[in-house]
Write a structure and sequence with these properties.
alpha+beta, Alpha-Beta Plaits, four-stranded antiparallel beta sheet, 4 strands, disordered N terminus
């Protein structure tokens, strides 16, 4: 099994759609909102909801959460760190090579790349495997290999073994509900990686 370009394109499209869905429901999307130099919308006219780029939409959502929280300590906010992490996510999701192989009770994936992609792999994958370890009874580990990181995810439960293999590399990376709280913590200056 290996990640294919059509699958990655679909994943990217889903990420953009999810960003649009979230942005559409966020406070502050009123038709009368304007940007300096942008025309004001007329009542009843359609208003775009897509932020135009998924990382921009993710940061926009975080900014709205921070602005809505009267307890936000703006002296601690680090949106630049969040932006760098989102660049890492882009590199790992769309540019890393993932060679998957079935192993006893699970899946092993060699995730490789070069330059900025390799740096992103080495920053993200070990941290993500720690977050996955124990999820649904899984055992997850990451080890450094030449050009990247080897992930191994296994389970003693046959239905979970099928689940792990069905998810494959990118599904495992998307598993768990820790990404969004992690992004908010990172923006608040609480660096986790």
């Amino acid at each position: 099994m290996s990640a294919t370009r059509p699958f990655l394109a679909l994943l990217a499209a889903l990420a953009v759609g999810a960003s649009a869905y979230l942005a559409a429901g966020m406070p502050g999307n009123a038709q009368s909102d304007t940007h300096s130099g942008h025309a004001q919308h007329t009542a009843g006219a359609p208003v775009p909801t897509m932020p135009g780029q998924d990382a921009f939409g993710a940061i926009q959502e975080i900014v709205r959460i921070l602005e809505a929280d009267p307890g936000t300590d703006w002296s601690q906010i680090d949106l630049a760190a969040l932006r760098e992490h989102l660049v890492d996510m882009h590199e790992v999701t769309l540019k890393a090579a993932a060679a998957e192989r079935i192993v006893d009770n699970g899946l092993q994936v060699d995730v490789t790349g070069s330059g900025r992609t390799l740096d992103a792999i080495r920053r993200m994958l070990p941290a993500h495997m720690r977050a996955l370890n124990g999820l649904s009874g899984w055992r997850a580990a990451a080890e450094t290999i030449a050009g990247g990181v080897r992930l191994t995810v296994t389970s003693g439960n046959p239905s979970e073994v099928a689940h792990i293999r069905g998810l494959g590399f990118i599904g495992l990376m998307a598993s768990g509900a820790h990404h969004q709280p992690h992004h908010l913590a990172m923006a608040r200056g609480q660096h986790i990686h």
